[in-house]
Amino acid sequence: MANIEQQLSKISDSLRGKMNADEYKNYILGFIFYKYLSDSYKDYLNKYKVSMRFASIEEIVNSKDEYTDFKESALEKIGFYLEKGECCNEILEKGKTEIILEDLSNVFRSIEERTIGTASQSDFQGLFVDLDLMSSKLGETPEKRNKVVVSILSDLSEVDYELDSKDKDILGDAYEYLISNFAATAGKKGGEFYTPQEVSKLLSRIISIGKKEMASVYDTTCGSGSLLLQVRNYTNVKDLYGQELNPTTYNLARMNMLMHNVPFADFDIQKGDTLENPKHLDKKFEGIVANPPYSAHWNPDALRGDERFEGPGKMAPKTKADFAFVQHMLYQLEDNGTMAVVLPHGVLFRGSGELAIRKWLIENKNYLDAVIGLPANIFYGTSIPTVVLVFKKCREEDQGVLFIDSSAFFEKAKNKNIMREQDIEEIMRVYEGRYHVNKYSREVPLSEIAENDYNLNIPRYVDTFEEEEEIELSTVFEDLSILEKESKVIDTELGEFFKELGIDNE
């Protein structure tokens, strides 16, 4: 990992100053993905050679019939293929003596065109749309742009991506490393599509409890797909589903799936507004994780009568779609499923439509299972405190809601706070055991929540107040007396000091 981070840092330095961080991030990630496709293609070609007992790869490539069979096999198994001369190292060598901008643009376009009409079409279309190699931001002349592109490809060629490694995919991890670093410097825009790994781990572990495998997992606002991918570290997931509004981020999510070796047949990432134009509404999911945009604007008037939002009698406010996302996800949650979503702290106590929805979810449906307060400033782009709400449809009738206050447990870092491994472990221990820990957690009866008019603010249920030690007045007067005496001594010593210097200190 250190090797690739070093190379990525070099690439960033070559682009820094030519464009802003969010723009050159897209170029770097696009080239990383192209390098990944090249390596994956060569790896599959070599395995094909072995399985078909060819003496060499050249024997396949140079034979028209055999190469046609190989390409059909590649489309079926890995979803794409490259023609001779289109691999990253071949383009790089050509670029050392010729301008390759048009050649490379044609490669990107061809990769997408060859998938048309195949099972992988939806997963490859538009993936390279953000790589404009003719942009003046890369350089004022074709020669300067070519130099930058060759430099990037050269730096990436020095990295061993270890495609056969049994450990986590190194390229995919580097991809998330890049996103997290750019998100840290790109402000709010970066934070829209990246959930820090420690938060992803927490949500993924919660929905995976007691399940060795899950039929499907869904993220309603999937961003880069990091949350979906994290679930695979804790349980065997058959299919991953997600939807993302931002076109660039939608492309990143699909790249991220492929770079983490998720077969194109095992994920379905769609583009569009999840609330107004949901793409998976006919499906139910065993696990749902999400980190929706906080307090987003939406159009409830256009969705009145939609069965997703029926029940509470009121809609989520126009300027705060948080509970609209919750209702949408609950509509698609299987009866045996678990859902964990990160939301701004305000959803716990805001009134009007949000109060009506909270009351309906708790009193009428009994879906809310836990409220977990997180530390402030753990997300890129926002320092506001957040909370994890856990929902289940198969809760016992008299089961209370578990409240956990983990807001004070973190480590300070340069740009933000970080939840440590021990912090996550403690949350999981308490959540699984539903333990009462003084000043940290308590399972609260539904009746008590009703008495508080469905206000879920955590301090109402978990008392973290630390009493200050009583101070004896006699001790205070004694300390003041000592200070007075010391002050007189200092005045005397200063007077003598100024006298020796011949200075009148009056």
Word description of this protein:
With 506 residues, the chain is of the alpha/beta class. The protein has three domains: 163 residues, Ferritin, CATH 1.20.1260; 197 residues, Vaccinia Virus protein VP39 (Rossmann fold, 3-Layer(aba) Sandwich), CATH 3.40.50.150; 37 residues. The protein has 18 helices and eleven strands. Strands 3-2-1-4-5-7-6-8-11 form a nine-stranded mixed beta sheet. A two-stranded antiparallel ribbon has the order 9-10. Strand 2, helix 13 and strand 3 form a beta-alpha-beta unit. Helix 2 packs across helix 8. The termini are far apart. About 1% of the residues have low confidence.
Number of helices, counting only DSSP H or I runs of 4 residues or more:
18
**What would the average pLDDT be, to the nearest integer?**
88
End-to-end Cα distance:
69 Å
Rg: 29 Å
Order of helices and strands: HHHHHHHHHHHEHEHEEHEHEEEEEHEHH
Number of beta-strand segments: 11
Say what the CATH topology of the largest domain is: Rossmann fold
Q: Please, how many domains?
A: 3
Q: Provide the CATH superfamily of the largest domain.
A: Vaccinia Virus protein VP39
CATH class of the largest domain: Alpha Beta
Topology readout:
Blueprint: H1 2-15, H2 21-51, H3 57-61, H4 64-77, H5 88-95, H6 101-113, H7 121-124, H8 142-157, H9 170-185, H10 188-191, H11 197-208, E1 213-219, H12 226-231, E2 236-244, H13 247-259, E3 267-271, E4 285-290, H14 322-331, E5 333-344, H15 353-364, E6 368-373, E7 386-392, E8 401-405, E9 411-412, E10 417-418, H16 421-433, E11 441-444, H17 446-451, H18 473-500
Parallel strand pairs: 1-2, 1-4, 2-3, 4-5, 6-8
Antiparallel strand pairs: 5-7, 6-7, 8-11, 9-10
Helix pairs in contact: 1-8, 2-8, 2-9, 2-13, 5-8, 11-16
